[in-house]
Amino acid sequence: MSHNTFGHMFRVTTWGESHGPALGCVVDGCPPGIALTEADIQAWLDLRRPGQGKFVTQRQEPDAVRILSGVFEDERTRELFGGQVTTGTPISLMIENVDQRSRDYSEIATAFRPGHADYAYFAKYGVRDYRGGGRQSARETAARVAAGAVARKVIAGVTVRAALVQIGPHAVDRSRWDWDETHNNPFWCPDAAMVSVWEEHLETIRKAGSSTGAIVEVEAVGVPAGWGAPVYGKLDAELAAALMSINAAKGVEIGAGFASAAFTGEENADEMRMGNDGPVFLANNAGGVLGGISTGQAVVARVAFKPTSSILTPRRSVNEAGEEVELRTKGRHDPCVGIRAVPVVEAMTACVLADAFLRHRGQTGGVVHQPGG
Amino acid sequence: MSHNTFGHMFRVTTWGESHGPALGCVVDGCPPGIALTEADIQAWLDLRRPGQGKFVTQRQEPDAVRILSGVFEDERTRELFGGQVTTGTPISLMIENVDQRSRDYSEIATAFRPGHADYAYFAKYGVRDYRGGGRQSARETAARVAAGAVARKVIAGVTVRAALVQIGPHAVDRSRWDWDETHNNPFWCPDAAMVSVWEEHLETIRKAGSSTGAIVEVEAVGVPAGWGAPVYGKLDAELAAALMSINAAKGVEIGAGFASAAFTGEENADEMRMGNDGPVFLANNAGGVLGGISTGQAVVARVAFKPTSSILTPRRSVNEAGEEVELRTKGRHDPCVGIRAVPVVEAMTACVLADAFLRHRGQTGGVVHQPGG
Amino acid sequence: MSHNTFGHMFRVTTWGESHGPALGCVVDGCPPGIALTEADIQAWLDLRRPGQGKFVTQRQEPDAVRILSGVFEDERTRELFGGQVTTGTPISLMIENVDQRSRDYSEIATAFRPGHADYAYFAKYGVRDYRGGGRQSARETAARVAAGAVARKVIAGVTVRAALVQIGPHAVDRSRWDWDETHNNPFWCPDAAMVSVWEEHLETIRKAGSSTGAIVEVEAVGVPAGWGAPVYGKLDAELAAALMSINAAKGVEIGAGFASAAFTGEENADEMRMGNDGPVFLANNAGGVLGGISTGQAVVARVAFKPTSSILTPRRSVNEAGEEVELRTKGRHDPCVGIRAVPVVEAMTACVLADAFLRHRGQTGGVVHQPGG
Amino acid sequence: MSHNTFGHMFRVTTWGESHGPALGCVVDGCPPGIALTEADIQAWLDLRRPGQGKFVTQRQEPDAVRILSGVFEDERTRELFGGQVTTGTPISLMIENVDQRSRDYSEIATAFRPGHADYAYFAKYGVRDYRGGGRQSARETAARVAAGAVARKVIAGVTVRAALVQIGPHAVDRSRWDWDETHNNPFWCPDAAMVSVWEEHLETIRKAGSSTGAIVEVEAVGVPAGWGAPVYGKLDAELAAALMSINAAKGVEIGAGFASAAFTGEENADEMRMGNDGPVFLANNAGGVLGGISTGQAVVARVAFKPTSSILTPRRSVNEAGEEVELRTKGRHDPCVGIRAVPVVEAMTACVLADAFLRHRGQTGGVVHQPGG
User: What value of ipTM does the predicted structure carry?
Assistant: First the structure.
């Protein structure tokens, strides 16, 4: 994680501001010979796109991605790989900003929104692009989702999926968990019975000009044992950094996470039996990671998102001139940024796993050593 | 975070196994001209050292650190800097393993402790040093504490301190928080009234041959606004990785963390007023970090630690031959690894901050832009 | 240097193929508050642009650069910084490929040009974009020149300039060296008397459908003492990597370079006297770098470029089917790629120095310790 | 290359000063399951060791290496791997400094040797360990040789060997090249007839209290096609950095190197025919690298070393007080540091190749695509 780049072998560098001409990313280190089209990436971007419901920003961005480099197609690639493929060179992805609605930024141009990064950027750089949040805007996450679409292709055997498990004080009932339900509502909610509760809650929040926090849960199924590395390149440490780097994230936990603080050793330790393809675990408090290395179980993480700081209620603040002001943020804003974070959490997880896969293959050749093997 | 190295400008590489001849670290990129002696580092190691109470491992390690490189002393340094100082070259620190008690590892040599990294290491590498946990041992954290002692010198104006805030189900009462109390009990407990509760709880756990989880809270006071960088080199993302890389960590949160998921925007946004030296915040839900950049408030994080997996209760597992076994872990073990993690959390926080300081100074020159300034 | 990224603090990631829609780079870590417009960058690109004479490729590319992110302008920046400035966030630069002349690639699509990277790319990746050389094309260097233009702004007090000192067997006479002359001829030749010799030589080479090698010399004046770091981050080691990474480069030397192998210690050691602003050296065999750290003298390096491998003379080769073939490369090609390399050598040198400056400032604060100071 | 670390997947961090208690390195990212003992490493160190002849420093260092971590041996490893093996965790290697002869450093403690890094270190850091050259000492290269011994094990199919090809003005006659001869003389000279010329030359140099430069040539045979990566992670760019980072190196060239500047395209392009195991090249001007990627031919590089700056002849200089002085360097010094550089050049080449191998395997799986395959 170096400023605007993350990953070691599968490296993603993102760039772009909310109201600049475009945003995008460069994906470097991608293996060659992987079928990849703009449509492959667009599908994931469309899931993330705002403007799909009344609970996400009404900004209408087509978010059409272009692949500017790193792929190739000719007769031979069609024959060998089925069409356009990656060549192993950097994949440059660009999304133009078309809906930079003209508006008045005179207030936030000089005053710092409480809870927002305005002041921190000013203090660090002395200059900032405040239009729409600039580099701090959630629009940057479109580039993450695009990169994640490539990462998914690299770890083709792994399924990465996420769900929203809490909005404000309302958490899903895990006994009703159904992954299929996440496609039936605008919240990626896995608990059908919770949808109407959240709708009502968000409607109240929206009308009040307020906002609310949320928790996202992600799982990656199909990760073989052995990915990740001690002691600072741990899979869960890399995941923690990647997920905490998402806008508004304030907490990350793996497996049982904070709950494990209250566990006894007996409750915590996932027992093992032998299955046909290696050890089988009788629980997954570990969240699929032990000692920073994947165990073959599902990798499970949760991310807490704070409420967006852009609210209509006036808040006390200061401005660049050092004056005390009252500030309320008008304009289009998500009442719950956690909703749109779901595809971003998936994308970051996919990127971290793709990187771990390539590094593991590099150091060890990629073999999984199995008991009795 | 690259395998066994972390940091960008202030870089720490650790090495060593529990039962090898020694362990240590190389600290690279440290500024020159900083007074540094072995005693400076030893003081922090002594705080971390096991063998200080009945609730931490009874292994008796003096953990005497040696500085093998990167410092120099002559008449001129005594005159200019007051004694031995860093030279800007790599600082190699070594701690010999003197108490490698001879014992029988025949059982864990081939069977995998549930909840332990045994199986993950085997699956990845095919070979592992199982004696005392090898590289997975908490002894590795001695090298982190040593590096942290150097980091503290680099950020001399910052105070980094941590406390244990929960053991098992018993959380401290924050209204009774007193930092001074952390030095009066073996738990770094800031709530004097909680000490006896924890003692009793741990005694029960210990007698049962069980273990328990815990939560550590750390704060860094004196961090100026501007450290950290968007969007992947965020201060909180780096902190999350560093803290999650500590043995047995399962969750990390910044400021209000997971609680912020239930907040409204009004509750979450820390309002600002002007103080004499820049903005003053009326709350610190942000934990001192907004947009990945420090705000000048205290940087606050919490880390959840799972119970150690080495318990006396027999657990179902498998061994390298692929056979199903029942396993209980005899020998010296902490009933609560979270206790000993307190100085490690401090050390990792100090290292992340030292790195952020040097990177910030590199990119910007280190000026803090203040409103009205 | 990690695949397609170089630099540590001032980091450049380039992307793009010769015949894709565009090419570009992301410059990350640039300090904020630096005045930067597209015109600033375009000026350097125009110097590099092909199509300016009969001795460089006749491809007509306007090479118009766009800044897609990382800069900002409003009334306040105009007042404080004089206009549009860097914000400290990633600067994305893009150049569209407009002259992708339709042609027949059927031959080089499957056969490997001797001396070209065709075979190496095929062996590594199994798939390659052969149109115009794909990623191997010298067009990639436009992105380097663009990044170099930003780097020059970061090290505003340093002048980086290069000259061509040899084409084929014809080396300049150093006693006639005049930097001003480099702007008076299409070869960046500092020796006015050599220009006609080179013209004649290149005309012969061009008519024969052949090509020739060349040597470029670069100097950076104004670099203070102290940039660079032992022992692998040495300024000359970083320069060597950066310059050797330029297409067709086969050798790099610093200061007296290979000639120093024949020196005695007396000849080699640059003696020192005291000047008004620190030590003055009586010679510069060191090329401004000792122990990997700048000395305050001009940093001097030379780079050898091989002849382009795309020649009209038929050469024996093999093709993807494993058949032996005779191959001659038709189309537009420079008879001497070294000519166009001059601005690229300057750009890479500027980038390495900008990175060294920021790293030095990060570790030490940027002070130069002077004798008697 | 980040201060004192190099490599991406196979990473080497060195530490230590000439007159500190010890020096060493940490090798991180080494694959597991590789047989490795101290004797394996010691063999290469013994070749490098000073004190073996009258033309290298008379300092008597046993240079006994200790492996402090990263290896393991038990019955199972003896059975599976034949003894002690790497575990995939960091390998810490240490060499104690036993011959820190007590001497008077009063002069060089304050005055800067011309041609030495003394002044550069002072200007950068303000403090330096001047005893025996401190971190600038050639003793640091012992750690490189130790790391190189590990690297050789990682690329077991590759033979890396180097020879001295020029001392002062006396170059070997390549028509008499015999690798076996390099073991028959103290100069690693491949031209038996040149040995007496060099002996005489060095005797003259030594008696005069002077020193001389030299050129080392290295080749790596057995490198498959495909290692390295465009465009900044090029194999030759990484080699250039690694070799230029060796003390006293002033130039690096690959294959025909600087000579290729005088070549025509016809002379330069190595023609290809089909062999049984892929393409066969009819020449190797490329030095085994095209487009930054290995071609399957021998990788060939040359490094120029300047004369050591520590000579008996008085030279004009300045001291820390800013006074002008005359300085002559007494004590033990190599008349030709290039001689001892031979094993170091081999070691750095091996490390670069090991890193390239692991990275290539990571990104692509390690397959070589062959024509007709």
Answer: 0.96
